[in-house]
Amino acid sequence: MKATKQEFRTKYKALRQNLSETEIEQSSLAIANGVLRLPIWDKSYFHLFLSIVEHKEVDTELLLHLLAGKDKEIIVSKADFETRIMTHFLLTDNTKIQKNAYHIPEPVTGIEVPSKKIEVVFVPLLAFDKKGNRVGYGKGFYDKFLAECAPETIKIGLSFFEAEEAIMDVFEADIKLDYCITPQSCYHF
User: Fold this and answer.
1) Please, how many CA atoms are within 13 Å of residue 52, restricted to the half-sphere of its CB?
2) pLDDT, position 102
3) Reaction(s) catalyzed by this protein (predicted)?
4) Is 134 labelled as part of a ligand binding site?
5) Is 6 marked within a binding site?
6) 72 belongs to an annotated ligand binding site
7) CATH of domain 2-188
8) Averaged in consecutive runs of 10 residues, what is the pLDDT profile of the chain (189 residues)?
9) Is 139 annotated as a binding residue?
10) Is 9 within any annotated ligand binding site?
11) Would you call 48 helix, strand, or coil by DSSP?
12) 49 marked as binding residue
């Protein structure tokens, strides 16, 4: 299917709302297993989004344990909704996580990590196409953040659903994914 970002946003928000807890759990496990097959394990600094349960996002807790088990440096972000800028913090045993007004789990404070140091970014999304373009929530947080990262930073989308044919209203500033992992597939762009 070819559609605009807004059309895909509406479609996939509705599809996600219909997922059961069991489906989310099983699909998230399959996605984490898919990530294990990627050629990323020589990297050290991994940025992970903490799932918004209320939006039925891919549960990243399994990935969190996987990264911790491989002794990776895990980075999580705090979003400023006025400036639309994300600040990144090293996740440690002392990091206090708290949900913000939008139900996003975020670090309260911590050791700040510059975007340029991050080598792998797991990107939340609602939909993506066969060229690696993604549809997020439309606030532009990840586009700004990914633009600050080094060009060689690996960008990995996580999705419950397969790729769409094309997103029609892609902008030049939109940053493409390198991979997208679904419960059934691993897309490489």
Assistant:
1) 15
2) 84
3) (6S)-5-formyl-5,6,7,8-tetrahydrofolate + ATP = (6R)-5,10-methenyltetrahydrofolate + ADP + phosphate
4) yes
5) yes
6) no
7) 3.40.50.10420
8) 93 96 97 97 97 93 96 96 92 93 90 96 97 91 93 98 95 90 97
9) yes
10) yes
11) coil
12) no
